[in-house]
């Protein structure tokens, strides 16, 4: 799904009262689309959680994305995965 579609879907889900957190590859697109909460990852397309079979890295990415749900207000919040 493209960044724009993800941002639109996330915004609609948020309007229904359900918080969302997205993982995005294209930071510039996320800055334009402004999804409610997004974590930018520096990984290649198709590897949103990092390298295959790198379970500690994948869990860390998921934890950082879920921490975005603690952000105050409706957003937008865009953080870099470090």
Overall tally of domains = 1
Mean pLDDT: 89
Shape: globular
Determine the N-to-C terminus distance.
24 Å
Strand order of the largest sheet: 1-2-3
Report low-confidence residues grouped into runs of 5 or more.
none
User: Number of helical segments?
Assistant: 3
Q: What's the total count of β strands?
A: 3
Radius of gyration based on Cα positions: 12 Å
Structure write-up:
The protein is an alpha/beta fold. It has one domain (3-80). Helices cover 40% and strands 13% of the residues. The chain has helices spanning 3-15, 27-33, 55-67; strands at 22-24, 37-40, 77-80. The chain is globular and about 35 Å long. It starts with a helix and ends with a strand. The model has no long low-confidence stretch (mean pLDDT 89).
